[in-house]
Amino acid sequence: MSIGSGQWSVDTTRRIISTVGNPIFLGAYIVFVLPLAAREVGRAFAELRANPSNVGVNAVLCVSHGVIAGLLGLALIMSGSRGPALGAIACLVLFFMLHLMGKRRPWLALAVTLVPVVIGGAVVLNMIRVSHTRRDRAQHSRASVGEDPSEAPRTRRSHGMQNRFAHILDVKEKNSQVRILIWRGVVSMFASNPLLGCPDVETDSLQGLRPLVGYGPENMLIVYSSVYPPELGRYENRRSKMADRAHSETWNTLMEQGAAGVFVYLLLYMAIFHHALRGAGFVRNGMRGLLLVGCCALGAVMSATALVLKWGFVFLGPSIPLGMVAGVFLYLWIVTLLDGREVCSFAGNPVVFGLVVAIMSALTGHFVESQVGIPTVVSRICFWALVALLLIATGPVGAPAPAAANRAGGFGPDGIAVWGLLAAAIFTTLAHDMVINFKSMRTASEILKAAYGSGNGAVILASCLLVCAVPALWSMRGGATIVGVAGRFSAVALTGLFVAGIYSVFNARTQAWLARATVSDTASLVARECRVEHLLTFYYATIFLLLVLLGFALGAGGGGWLKADLKACFVCIGLLVCIAGPLVYSTNLRAAHADVCMKSAHAYHAKGGARESQALFQRTISLDP
Is 146 buried (19+), middle (13-18) or exposed (0-12) by CB count in 10 A? Predict the structure, then answer.
């Protein structure tokens, strides 16, 4: 939006990015949280109608949740991400459809599935027509001045939001062609079964099983060169950029885990659909469950047949998940026509129903958008967190309710300690990303002033206010006073800022020392490189410590936790320290240190420092052979 002076890696006036990553990663994250925000908007309006005596607080909740949901939608549009846009459409249509069915308005729910399709199709067709009209006019104008219209470069087309969404279904568009060619290479890889590794050095003992079990994670870069489509070189530079992801979750799973992995992947989503719809009261018996499975299978077969006949075998991967989602809508249509107003048999807490519907919608939207995108750490965490929450929300009816939060002590799931530790983790991550020293300043105070007094500081401040406002707004649902809300906001802010402040000072002092340090020999160079690596190590250690404290804060909420819960916490923490700690250090942190060291070695090599680069390359090999 051209607000602020923060240093971004791309031109954010065209497509926005965030700390999540590039625009597509941002859009994928928004698909997860958009139905959850829509649920909170619905809850706020329901409480406003049901409790007219507390109009002020409920009105504030309605406005705040509405603004958040609106900003999420605006961010999705400004990201220009077409795959997440398709996922958002699918999840929102399913969200409103299930909610209307739960409110005994099935026919309106069926209309919800038709109206967006008709309007969206008309809008897309009109935008495509406008785009082609502009292209024809441009070619005509070039022909009038003596240029050959057929030789007009494609790069002259506008790259605005309208042009991006106008080509959302255009398989001949550049980005679509890149994905299709990468998928073609994955299909060729599955058919030709190339050898993993160097044929002259080692032999792949599992080569015959690769179509069944795949090549393992992060190995596409190794084997893809043997099936690299030559046409892909027209769009990407092979020397500087080799495909390391399939840009489709199904094809990526086939490459990494083989046919068996794809089967388990589709079975997992089928189980999620069945479990969520059963928990929300839309699958009332075993026969309805078989009907749901049959509808998803029918949708997958019909979608695969149609897309493969239309565009080729490379669309088999994305077509099966899209057909399964279509099968879910088909099932809801059939049970609505059979049961009418009694289509939903849910008789529990409406809050649980809304949560299950929101989670089901979010996971469905992710299922759609991931077929043309790249899975990230953020999307993986969101996926499994929502699956875990779905299992908790749809647990046995007779299960004991969790202990209430100890508000006086500030512990428990709703306590100040939990929110404060979460805020500290978020603020620390922002400080790690944004407290930087591009200008080689020599004192920590200068670095902190430059970081927090610039556009980066504005981003950190806005994030702090948003994070601290969430528990404050949440406490308003319990009838908290203005003083209580302000105290909760202040306590969370102070906790988060205190931890992030300590981390920022350490980060700034280390970077100032690096700017002042002089390199006299290779030993001092390696010592300096170790200090660079300590920046990442300290961040990992800080986040791990905060997560440990967060576990204790969550376990301290109920009564009697000193007798059983504390012992369980110590056992879990001990297992984490003994198992997860070495695993993270050996497989993740050492590799990250090696990557940082290798980049420094390349920098010295480019400057002609043979001795320095050799020392750093040797350290890189010792860290990650």
Answer: exposed
Q: How far is Cα 418 from Cα 550, in angstroms, rounded to an integer?
A: 6
Which distant-in-sequence residues (6+ apart) come within 8 Å of 520 by Cβ?
none
Question: What is the C-alpha to C-alpha distance for residues 481 and 473, in angstroms, rounded to an integer?
Answer: 11
For residue 37 the two structure tokens come to 């925000």
- The 3-state DSSP class for residue 193 equals coil
Q: For the chain, give the mean pLDDT.
A: 78
Sign of CA pseudo-dihedral 409, 411, 412, 415: positive
Handedness of CA 185, 187, 188, 193 (dihedral sign): positive
Residue 216 one-letter amino acid: G
Closest-CA residue to 291 (of 323, 334, 260, 259): 334
The secondary element (H helix, E strand) that includes residue 177 is: helix 174-192
DSSP per-residue string spanning 100-155: HHHTT-HHHHHHHHHHHHHHHHHHHHHHHHHHHHHHHHHHHHHHHTT--GGG--GG
Residue-by-residue DSSP string for 200-239: TT---TTGGGHHHH-S-TT-HHHHGGGG--GGGGGTS-TT
Helix (H, G, I), strand (E, B) or coil at 286: helix
Burial pattern 262-296, b for ≥16 Cβ within 10 A else e, equals: beebbeebbebbbbbbbbbbbbbeeebeebbbebb
C-beta atoms surrounding 92 within 10 Å? 19
243 and 232 Cβ atoms separated by less than 8 Å: yes
pLDDT per residue over 338-375, tens digit each? 888 888 888 778 888 999 999 999 999 999 999 988 88
pLDDT at 397: 43
Helix (H, G, I), strand (E, B) or coil at 483: helix
Residues 287-313 pLDDT 10s? 999 999 999 999 999 999 998 898 888
Q: Give how far Cα 24 sits from Cα of 71, 124, 169, 180, Å.
A: 17, 20, 17, 17
Contact 289, 335 (CB under 8 A): no
- For residue 565, what pLDDT is reported? 54
- Cβ atoms of 329 and 94 within 8 Å: the answer is yes
Alpha carbon of 601 to those of 14, 103, 591: distances in Å?
Answer: 35, 63, 15
Q: Which long-range contacts (CB under 8 A, 24 or more apart) does 206-211 make?
A: 209/258, 210/258, 211/258, 211/259
Of the listed ranges 273-282, 300-309, 516-525, the one predicted with least confidence: 516-525
* Predicted confidence band of residue 277 (pLDDT cuts 50, 70, 90): very high
DSSP string, 291-357: HHHHHHHHHHHHHHHHHHHHH-GGGHHHHHHHHHHHHHHHHHHHHHHHHGGG-----S-HHHHHHHH
pLDDT digits (tens, 9 = 90+) for 470-479: 777 777 666 6
Angle value at C-alpha 368, between 363 and 372, nearest 5 degrees: 130
pLDDT at residue number 562: 42
pLDDT digits (tens, 9 = 90+) for 430-453: 888 777 777 788 888 888 888 777
* pTM, rounded to two decimals: 0.71
Burial 162-194 (b: 16+ CB within 10 A, else e): ebbbbbbeeeebebbbbbbbbbbbbbbbbeeeb
Both tokens of 457, joined, read 């500081």
State residue 394 phi and psi, 5-degree precision.
Answer: -105, 30
What is the predicted pLDDT for the residue at 406?
Answer: 41
pLDDT at 82 over 60: yes
Condensed to tens digits (0 to 9), the pLDDT of residues 208-235 reads 788 888 887 777 777 777 787 877 777 7
Distance CA(324)–CA(270), nearest Å, equals: 8
